[in-house]
Amino acid sequence: MTGSAWIVQNLRAVRGRAYPRVLGAQREPSWIFFDVALPLLTVAAYIYMYKFMDAPKEFVGFVILGGAMTAFWLNILWSMASQFYWEKETGNLSLFLIAPVSRMSILGGMAVGGLFFTTLRASATLVIGIVVFGVTLSLSSPLMLIAIFLVTMVSLYGMGMMFASLYLLFGREAYNMSNLMTEPIYLASGFYFPVKALGYWAAAGASIIPITLGLDGLRQLFYPESSAQYGFLPVGTELVILVGLSVLFLILSKVSLDYMENLGKTTGRLTLRWQ
Amino acid sequence: MEPAVETKKLTRVFNPKKKKEGASVRALNSVDLKIEKGELFGLLGPNGAGKTTLLKILSTLLLPTSGKAYVSGLDVEKDYVEVRKRINMVSGGEISGYGLLTVRENLWMFSQFYGIKSSIALERIDDMLGKFGMLDKKSEKVRTLSTGQRQKMNVIRGFVTDPQILFLDEPTLGLDVNASRTIRDFILDWVRKSERDKTVLLTTHYMAEADQLCDRVAIIDDGRILACDSPENLKKLVKSETTLRLDVTTMKDQRVLGTIPGVEKFTSTDDLENNITSLRFVLGDESAISDIVSGVAKGGSKILALRKTEPTLEDVFIKLVGKGFE
């Protein structure tokens, strides 16, 4: 098989695996209530608290941005990290493993589909939040904004791809793992407040989760006038670190995927249900 | 021409994660098997015999503990990427796919993992849905299908990628007669029309299925291949047990029947209340049947019912294993 034929074959696999997620947005509109309306209630609670405390008005925007980004983190935990475990339970994993394509293309398809669907959800949260709470965002550097968002997504979904293999190790504990990584990361990554408030070293530690720097960068770009006061690191530095995290997580996801496949073939447990 | 599948001293041992979970299990024990291209080969055995383990090794999901396995002449351990291009697998009771997709979308999705161009994949899908009587279901969501319809879809998934070798792990498990027959007919037709290009390795514990479909059958138990031959030849192993049963109107003098050449054993029971005599013959030579019929007529009785009981693969299995299927 030539190199281009291999690429086409794997791109088709990406498209095939992305398809159910892209379609899910149309076929199951109940997400509008569960994934947009309900998270807005949490966002609203923080906003009213900040308003009551007479906090700087940027904080309303910070919370709405954080609320929109929670959709991506939840998608990583429940639809990327846990996904291979659920696929094993339905028997899909065996079929993915015997297919003559790179497993990375199947994970990539999950990521692309998840990213598409979640961007819709996050955008809806953002737009409704902006309209309802009358938030004004300034767009001083649109190219940098796009770059920060895209690199955050690549590194975040790279991390999700890595988790997908590692979660198989936890078996039935995958559900608990996802629960364990929800609220603590909301805190550590500063979903509802500037992460700088945690102090330098805590914020630096939390930066291993790409959404920490991504969210901080987006906030700085939407509110450039308060960047010096609330921003954790210069946006350019955050972009470079996020690029590094992207490369790191994509490599680690490939390594962990190969490791898990090999372990599964050796122990025989990877394709057995209820293990 | 290399065989479609070949195993040499193939052994697979499963070790427990922890010692307290019990002893190691030898799922396959030095299995030697050769399946030629174009064969419809059956692997017959009870639950836990090692059938699925063998299929998992051949489909690159599992590594052997020792021994070798080859698919299309390719080592499943070293050349697994090339092996995967040539195979597909379908299991009975599969719940694979996504419920929110339609049947057609689901089949298309799996075809994409084999890099098949969409137009070609959709043409094949529609053709096969037609052959399985499922065209009217192509736009139905998978979660609305019955068990039989879902399994037909799973089987189509295996064929849509046009594999050289298809592994079918109990494909008709739990299905009704009609759904099973449709699947069996399709499998048979696919192999026969391929002019020895396509091979099927079918595991089952339905004796009749193996008998009806397979060119050759291997009987496996406790990870060992006990016998491997055509169903006809396997049944010859228990040929001496061929019996003929006749229900006739009461027959007073039956002695002559026991002396007919080719009759090895003869027993009879009388049902005086219903005026019926039941005769049971064990035959060494089936040409004795016509003499038995003549003998009954000469004895002044009429034949009410006649059944020739031929040996089945189940008889072979019982003879080889010493027990029936669980």
Structural class of chain A comes to: mainly alpha
Radius of gyration from the alpha-carbon trace of chain B, in angstroms? 25 Å
Question: Can you write the helix and strand succession of chain B as a string?
Answer: EEEHEEHEHHHEHEHEEHEEEHEH
- Biggest chain-to-chain interface with counts: A-B, 35 and 37 residues
Helix content of chain B: 25-40%
| Structural domain count of chain A | 1
Globally, the shape of chain A reads: globular
**Strands of the largest sheet of chain B, in order across it?**
6-7-8-3-9-10
CATH class of the largest domain in chain B: Alpha Beta
**Average predicted confidence as pLDDT of chain A:** 91
Number of domains of chain B: 2
Query: What is the β-strand count of chain A?
Result: 0
Low-confidence stretches of chain A: none
End-to-end distance of chain B: 39 Å
Describe this protein's structure:
The complex is a heterodimer of chains A (275) and B (326). In chain A, α7 runs parallel beside α13 (235-267). The model of chain A has no long low-confidence stretch (mean pLDDT 91). Chain A has one domain. With 275 residues, chain A is mainly alpha-helical. Chain A is globular and about 60 Å long. The longest helix of chain A is centred in the C-terminal third of the chain and has 33 residues, at 235-267. Chain A has 13 helices and no strands. Chain B is α/β, with parallel strands linked by helices and 326 residues long. Helices cover 32% and strands 29% of the residues of chain B. Chain B contains ten helices and 14 strands. In chain B, the strands form three sheets. Chain B has a six-stranded mixed beta sheet with strand order 6-7-8-3-9-10, sandwiched between helices. In chain B, strands 2-1-4-5 form a four-stranded antiparallel beta sheet, with helices on one face. The longest helix of chain B has 17 residues, at 177-193. The model of chain B has no long low-confidence stretch (mean pLDDT 90). Chains A and B meet through α1, α5 and α13 of A and α2, β6 and α3 of B.
